Amino acid sequence: MVQDEPGGEIVVKNDGPREKRPNFFTRIAIFIRQVFAELRKVVTPTRQELLKFTGVVLGFVVVMMAIVYGLDLLFVWLTTVVFDVPGAS
To answer: How many whole angstroms separate alpha carbon 19 and alpha carbon 14?
Structure first.
């Protein structure tokens, strides 16, 4: 187990001939250390970025809802025309 100097990442050293795999608990410890190393890299968005991203997501959802609604109306009309359902508008 070696900690990279520039990135600060914890990796399993792999030089020379194939070595025996670390035991189960060592692998879990390495995994947890790597998770914490990745979590330190996470940047929390500012309030302005958060509002902008929320607006983009909501806008995308509204557009997709409109597309699905339009396709639903199209297919209802198409099945009504093709199968000639009596009493349908």
So the answer is: 8
- Per-position DSSP letters for 2-71, written without gaps between them: EE-TTT--EE----SSPPPPPPHHHHHHHHHHHHHHHHHT--PPPHHHHHHHHHHHHHHHHHHHHHHHHH
Domain boundaries, the chain: 2-40, 44-89
pLDDT over 90 for what percent of the chain? 61
Hunting for tokens 């009596």 — which residue is that? Answer: 86
* H or E element at residue 86: none
Q: Is the pLDDT of residue 13 over 90?
A: no
- CA-nearest of 36, 38, 26 to 1 is 26
